[in-house]
Design a protein that fits this description.
With about 900 residues, this protein is of the alpha/beta class. About 45% of the residues lie in helices and about 10% in strands.
Length: about 900
């Protein structure tokens, strides 16, 4: 994009750009030169240098201590809560500068970008001016490199600026929303609403209309308690399922006054849903409240108390700079969402440590009304807005947690739409799991006891959070003291080293030490230290069982006083003292909620330990594990999973609901048999409620036979990394970029990237990689979407939820068939699910999801390539009917890429393969 006006003057500082294709340095004199890696490092060390994404530059130079004037940090300060793709192209477009055509043009653009940012500070109409002068003073004291550059250009305001905490608006209390009215929706009303949402002149889709009418049936009045209307609706890509279910949802909400919850698995779909919902609801109602709310878990939102602590000395060095930039963002954010909201996903990665996580409520330590910022809290605002909303957009995990332990049972959702419904099983598997580990138990200790020794931060133990209660109620004070004393038996700092040296302290550390020893003793995998190891929780040695008994007693000694404390809090609420005001009542309610959660957690751990050494429970799968990564241990754990997690899901989520929809483009098993719905029904929870779900299917309108082609490459031997890397490089070159590469192992991904990145960068074909580039996954997808010549390689997170229509994604490459990892949990479910039939169902689903990344709109086209000769024909039904499938050599595949689609007649998926 070219600037409509004159270009800004370049900032008079040297600029450095590093890619896998080389390194370029531009000095103050205005000439750009290609330099060696050593010269680039020396230049950055000698003087402040402009660069873009310093951690990425450091990675490419192999110099981790690199520092400089990162333009992304300046952008985050000057334009908080504004989107920018963190690449030269993205920054240029965000600032209205010409996009650099080659790597050698980038340093000049960086200097122009610096000039544009300075010009924004001088502009009287700078929309984010308020708070900037005060922030830059604080940042200068923290020795932020940009502070001295920006400070002369930021005018001191005429009057003192309000601090963030004074600027944020307070939320208002609202009365409880009445229960929805029982209504019947006329079919014509749904049809008319769908027509309105799709817009005048929109393409008429019979499949979408039929889909919307099927969805509408879940909103009918329920006929019996515990028997919700349940619909399973498969809607192929291109049907328009989002508007297909928003149409009946919006009609029902309008007629009934009720709330519909739409649950997704990926943040990308949440953003898409928020945009689509604007067609059905206004941004604000007449009273100023939002009818549509995006709701996430507490750990996604900025915690104002954590931020205040960080700004007042809780953070030091670079994390303190991050806190100031987050405070700038906090004054302009729409909703305080730090993970997938309007905080740039790349901001946290610029600071390496987990600074973003430390500014959220990761540990569930919220003190609710005891917080001085309670009335301005982003989390509380979202909760209150969602209670009054017509549509709540959430994720699978939050919906399940909310159903299991909502603070207000009356606010549990009763009309639920699970989009990306093929992930509900996995989400339930995680939600209803029990894991007793070192990491989990040390977090419990911190929640009970609070800061110990020299530890910093705002963590407050039970005694600090409930000090006024303890001073008023003697039995409550005794319960707090007993819980804190018992909590000292939990693992503390340094537990992992002590366990590794077989010198544990306390009964829980002793258990973890015994678990670690037993797991290593029984390991037959021969796995290198980079991989985790595990063993079945059966036939365990006596020392593990004995340690489990002692640990269970220690946990019970914590749980019992917590139960007593909960009882005392209930008594205080039932007979409140004179000093207990509304805020104090709200704080006690919050404390009761947190206590209940922890009591249930400890109870689940005790149940897990009590089963060790006893008979096997057929409903559960238990195992021991030592978690390792990059040649080091990071946790020791005992795991328990439901063999079928849809059993608790049915009881907790489905049974209280009135209407539930599960929908996806890949809901059924793509098999040639007639029983394709069997697995979808089983994984919906319906069998546990004796409910017969409505089954609905709308086929994709896309012409896969003409717009897609599956190529199975037969001459890349398994385990031949040089051949695999060469194949990826040649495919990316033949395609001219636009390749999404999917790997089943991180090590192979890293090895391939290391072999091809330089070669492709020199050809102007950048390759970005998950687990290599210090960039979060969402930002990597943004970069990939923004540049048609870029390619992106990664693992499972890229197989789902990546929505990149158009030219930027024109080829998907799998390095091998995505076989399931044969861990203990998988083997148990495989045995219960039919053996190889169970495996094939999983593989077909993964192939279908991966193929679904390729064709996102009717104009998309491209190739789907699998670099594996071992591709059983029984898996071919994973691809849409009519999709041509060929077994070819790599050279033949490259020729087909060069020729484009439609080069010759081919056999469709499900038929005989062309040799």
């Amino acid at each position: 994009m070219t600037s409509p006006g004159p270009l800004p003057d370049p900032l008079n500082l040297p600029a450095l750009h590093a890619s896998y294709g080389g390194h370029w340095l531009r000095g103050n004199a205005g000439s750009t030169q290609a330099v060696s890696k050593g010269d680039a490092i020396m230049a950055a060390a000698d003087t402040p240098v402009l660069m873009l994404n310093a951690p990425l530059v450091a990675t490419r130079l192999g110099y981790p201590d690199l520092s400089g004037l990162d333009l992304l940090e300046a952008f985050a300060f000057i334009h908080p809560a504004r989107f920018c793709v963190p690449t030269p192209r993205g920054l240029a477009e965000a600032l209205g500068l010409p996009v650099p055509e080659t790597d050698a043009d980038v340093p000049e653009m960086l200097q122009r970008a610096g000039g544009a940012l300075i010009a924004a500070c001088r502009d009287p109409a700078w929309p984010e001016r308020e708070g900037a002068w005060s922030a830059v003073q604080s940042l200068e004291r923290l020795r932020w490199p940009w502070a001295q550059v920006l400070r002369p250009h930021i005018a001191k305001p005429d009057r003192a600026e309000r601090w963030l905490f004074a600027r944020l608006p307070e939320w208002d209390e609202a009365g409880e929303r009445p229960s929805p009215r029982q209504v019947e929706m006329p079919a014509e009303a749904v049809k008319a609403q769908l027509a309105r949402l799709t817009g005048e002149g929109a393409e008429s889709r019979e499949g979408q209309r039929a889909y919307a009418q099927d969805v509408a049936r879940i909103f009918a009045p329920r006929s019996a308690p515990g028997r919700p209307h349940l619909a399973l609706a498969q809607a192929g890509t291109g049907i328009g399922k989002t508007l297909g279910y928003l149409a009946p949802a919006s009609v029902w909400s309008s007629l009934s006054g009720g709330t519909v919850w739409v649950s997704t698995f990926t943040k990308n779909l949440q953003r898409q849903l928020r945009a689509e919902a604007r067609r059905a609801w206004p941004a604000k109602r007449a009273d100023g409240t939002p009818p549509v709310v995006v709701r996430k878990g507490r750990e996604n939102y900025l915690c104002l108390l954590n931020l205040e602590d960080a700004l007042q000395g809780g953070f030091a060095g670079r994390p303190a700079v991050l806190a100031q930039l987050v405070a700038r963002w906090g004054a302009y954010t729409a909703n305080g969402d730090m993970i997938g909201g309007d905080l740039p996903g790349w901001l946290g990665t610029l600071f390496r440590k987990r600074g973003i996580a430390a500014l959220t409520d990761q540990r569930g330590e919220c003190i609710y009304a005891g917080c001085p910022h309670y009335r301005k809290c982003f989390i509380e605002r979202a909760a209150r807005d969602s209670a009054q909303a017509d549509l709540v957009i959430a994720n699978h995990a939050l919906v399940m947690v909310n159903a299991a332990r909502a603070r207000d049972p009356n606010q549990r959702p009763t009309r639920l739409i699970f989009d990306e419904g093929h992930h509900v099983f996995d989400a339930a598997d995680s939600t209803f799991a029990a894991t007793l580990s070192g990491q989990e138990t040390i977090e419990l200790r911190r929640w009970i006891i609070g800061p110990e020794k020299e530890s910093r931060g705002r963590r407050r133990g039970l005694a600090a959070r409930l000090a006024d209660i303890a001073s008023y109620d003697e039995p409550g004070a005794e319960a707090i003291a007993a819980a804190c004393k018992a909590g000292l038996m939990l693992p503390s700092e340094g537990w992992l080293q002590r366990v590794g040296e077989n010198q544990p302290f306390g009964p829980v550390e002793a258990l973890l030490s015994a678990v670690r020893s037993a797991t290593y003793a029984r390991d037959e995998s021969g796995q290198e230290a980079g991989y985790s190891i595990e063993t079945e929780a059966a036939g365990l040695p006596g020392d593990v069982i004995e340690a489990a008994g002692a640990a269970s007693e220690a946990l019970a000694s914590i749980r019992v006083p917590l139960i007593r404390l909960g009882g005392r809090l209930e008594a205080i609420l039932a007979d409140p003292p004179d000093w207990l005001d509304a805020q104090g009542r709200a704080r006690i309610e919050g404390a009761r909620f947190a206590l209940t959660w922890r009591i249930e957690l400890i109870g689940a751990w005790e149940a897990l330990l009590d089963r060790l050494g006893g008979p096997v429970d057929p409903e559960f799968v238990d195992w021991l594990a030592v978690d390792r990564s990059d040649a080091r241990e990071f946790d020791v754990a005992i795991h328990r999973r439901w063999l079928d997690p849809m059993k608790p899901f049915a009881r907790v989520v489905l049974e209280p609901a009135h209407g539930v929809l599960m929908t996806s483009a890949t809901l059924t098993d793509r098999t040639r048999d007639d029983d394709k719905w069997v697995s979808a029904v089983a994984r919906s929870g319906a069998p546990h409620l004796d409910v017969a779900p409505l089954l609905s299917e709308a086929a994709s309108p896309f012409d896969y036979a003409a717009r897609a082609e599956v190529l199975i490459v037969t001459d890349i031997a398994k385990g031949d990394l040089p051949a695999l890397a060469g194949a990826y490089a040649r495919i990316i070159e033949a395609s001219g970029g636009g390749v999404l590469g999917l790997f089943t192992a991180i090590r192979r991904l890293r090895s391939v990237h290391g072999r091809i990145a330089d070669r492709l960068a020199r050809a102007g074909l950048p390759v970005y990689a998950q687990h290599v580039d210090p960039i979060d996954t969402g930002t990597l997808v943004d970069i990939f979407r923004d540049d048609p010549r870029a390619s992106l390689i990664g693992t499972d997170a890229l197989r789902d939820g990546v929505d990149v229509p158009g030219e930027s994604l024109r080829c998907v490459v799998l390095e091998q068939v995505p076989w399931p990892r044969p861990d203990i949990l998988h083997k148990a479910r495989r045995a219960a699910g039919g053996g190889s039939v169970y495996d094939d169902r999983i593989i077909r689903a993964r192939l279908a999801q991966a193929f679904g990344r390729l064709i996102r709109s009717k104009d998309d086209k491209g190739h789907f390539i699998v670099l594996s000769p071992a591709f059983p024909s029984r898996l071919l039904s994973a691809f849409p009917d009519g999709t041509p499938v060929l077994r070819v050599t790599l050279d033949e595949a490259l020729q087909r890429l060069a020729d484009g689609l439609g080069a010759s007649a081919r056999e469709p998926a499900g038929g005989a393969l062309q040799p």
